[in-house]
Write a structure and sequence with these properties.
- With 242 residues, the chain is mostly helical.
- 57% of the residues lie in helices and 12% in strands.
- The protein has one domain.
- The strands form 3 sheets. It has a two-stranded antiparallel sheet. It has a two-stranded antiparallel ribbon with strand order 3-4.
- Helix 2 runs antiparallel to helix 4.
Length: 242
């Protein structure tokens, strides 16, 4: 039975890594096999060939823990009173679950499901620098279903706490819990969104730098596109000869 490669991350102090942080490298596990599937944008994304008990992605365990603490935190908040939990116990339990979800999403599931990570570091001068990283080969290594599952559940969790916040705006008893849930879930969502945007900016910068380094190649490509392709040019030439 074949399985998809699982990314392995090695962190080093290589200067080629992100500024102020460790290098970020993802390598596939040779013990697993996969087949490539074309993505909508023409890039290659690994397609999982194994159905993990109904989950179509490559990392079912990571996906399970990605939603476990989210569901538990919302369930305790909404149903704690039904099961007779006192307010203090419900408050502490929900905050602990929110913290566990924040740490798990930030440090574990984000790296496994979408090959991204983000963190902040304090410099010697006391200033804080935020670092957002994406695996250089994320488009080829990240499973399409894992990618979809991560963003849908992360965004839905943030929206859920936003709705709960609005429903409890006039409740000084539950407002702090919903505010904590929105802040923690929103921080992860924005952090990974920043990772994704930075990755796209790096690809654009790389393409522009290659075009600047090879102006002749870029000129030929631009001329080819403006002329409508090689077939159109050939036909035009043939018509001219006739």
């Amino acid at each position: 039975m074949s399985q998809d490669p699982k990314p392995t991350f090695f962190f080093s102090s290589d200067p080629a890594g992100a500024q102020g942080g460790a290098g970020f490298v993802a390598e596939s596990n040779p013990n697993y096999a996969s087949i490539p599937a074309p993505a909508p944008d023409g890039q290659t994304v690994l397609s999982n060939t194994t159905d993990h008990g109904g989950y179509k992605g490559a990392h079912p365990v990571a996906a399970f823990f990605h939603v476990l603490f989210k569901i538990m935190a919302i369930s305790i908040f909404l149903l704690g009173g039904v099961f007779g939990l006192k307010y203090v116990l419900m408050l502490v339990t929900t905050i602990l679950l929110l913290t566990a979800d924040f740490w798990t999403t930030k440090n574990v599931t984000g790296r496994m499901l979408v090959s991204m990570r983000w963190w902040n570091e304090v410099k010697e001068d006391g200033s804080t620098q935020w670092v957002f990283e994406s695996s250089p080969e994320a488009d080829q290594r990240v499973n399409a279903y894992d990618h979809w599952f991560f963003w849908v559940t992360t965004g839905a969790n943030c929206v859920a706490w936003l709705v709960l916040l609005f429903l409890n705006l006039l409740s000084f008893k539950y407002l702090p819990i919903t505010l904590a849930g929105l802040l923690l879930s929103g921080a992860n969502f924005l952090g990974y969104f920043k990772c994704r945007r930075d990755a796209q900016q790096k690809v654009t910068s790389f393409m522009l730098s290659q075009a600047a380094a090879r102006p002749q190649v870029a000129g030929h490509v631009a001329s080819f596109l403006m002329s409508g392709g090689g077939s159109t040019t050939t036909n035009s030439g043939a018509n001219a000869n006739v």
